[in-house]
């Protein structure tokens, strides 16, 4: 199998917050990998912009250090030197006028201009305004905005209004890196490219769906931010919501950005409000002196913010009526794992008798680590002694199935940034989609804040609170094991 690399048109990409952590860890090393793959035209440029004072040479050295730290194996020394030559740096004041004319002078006419807002959301409006005030934005301009896109529905609407005052919706790219993962896109290919699954993808055949995003790390240095956010705002309202939409949506008329996003929006609007008895919230405990608990990390002994959340959702439409979808995400769990499991119903009648046991087909989609898919099917256990059944996986681990080409698959940020340059919004959230997600999340958050319940404690390195297990057990179901 040969991996195809299609170059993009020449572009100028400006990274506001170009000296920040996200730029160093993900954006700039990712762009370097796309350069090494031959996807950038020779005259494309990348411009770092931030309020700190640096020369272009100092910025290039910072990027060289970032590549050495986060992607030391890609390319050759010659490639690295050539990539660094494409970089420029401008000191810019997001809230003032300093540096904007210098930035305008670097823009090349007649090519795609993309501006990545890798900054706090409070600066989105100011940056959008100044790009127009100083004549930098044109009809080929695209802006990329990072989450959190709002703290609630009101703030999301305000952010949308700020951006809409200066840019058309077709120019705004709200990035969610989960949608750039290879397996997430393969989920659409599996659903809509194979006759095998789509006839079974409904409440008649699917017993339930589980979506798990487990992390082994705590909140660490993000304590102040996280304590104002929590797992619901930080993960469920965006990342897990997007995965749910791709699992549950109807087939779009075509693989087009608005057609796909129209179907995702319908799923969000079909979500029922979740009663509090179907929600479990938790906070991780300390694991010895060297691993503080959540309350110590956020330096707030009275915190009522959750580092873990599990819930049961229902989608009120013909396809999914009666089939629950269980979401689970948390910090300091036993393994780092992101997985979607579609659990099919048992056969209506077993011809093999009670001794054969109970068996179900399960399709699992692994997002991280070891991206791939498994389809568990029931077969006869080898050997004499009667008809004993066992469930075995039909395994498609990308690294094994695709061979060396799997190593060349771009990571999420690489793919999404190249989609921005191409003008493809399929894997980006639309403004009404973001607002619909907050409109669903806000009443649930308000209900537990009104009650004032404190999240239950759970052991670091566990699968979460016991109450989360009970959420499934009372329905006669079990969470899948969290494992790397």
TrEMBL record:
Binding locations of substrate: 177, 181, 215, 234, 331
Glucose-6-phosphate dehydrogenase NAD-binding domain sequence ranges: 14-186
GO CC terms: cytosol
Task: List UniProt keywords, sorted A-Z.
Answer: Carbohydrate metabolism, Glucose metabolism, NADP, Oxidoreductase
Q: Per UniProt, where does NADP(+) bind?
A: 17-24, 51, 147
- The yes or no answer to whether the keyword Oxidoreductase is present is yes
Active site residues per record: 239 (proton acceptor)
Top-level lineage group: Bacteria
Pathway(s) per entry: Carbohydrate degradation; pentose phosphate pathway; D-ribulose 5-phosphate from D-glucose 6-phosphate (oxidative stage): step 1/3
Q: What is its EC number?
A: 1.1.1.49
Q: What class of enzyme is it?
A: oxidoreductase
State the InterPro entries in the record: G6P_DH, G6P_DH_AS, G6P_DH_C, G6P_DH_NAD-bd, NAD(P)-bd_dom_sf
GO molecular-function terms, A-Z:
glucose-6-phosphate dehydrogenase activity; NADP binding
Single GO biological process annotation from the record: glucose metabolic process
- Reactions the enzyme catalyzes: D-glucose 6-phosphate + NADP(+) = 6-phospho-D-glucono-1,5-lactone + NADPH + H(+)
| Listed PANTHER family | GLUCOSE-6-PHOSPHATE 1-DEHYDROGENASE, GLUCOSE-6-PHOSPHATE 1-DEHYDROGENASE G6PD
Q: What does this protein do?
A: Catalyzes the oxidation of glucose 6-phosphate to 6-phosphogluconolactone.
UniProt family annotation = Belongs to the glucose-6-phosphate dehydrogenase family.
* Protein known as: Glucose-6-phosphate 1-dehydrogenase
Please give the organism.
Answer: Pseudooceanicola marinus
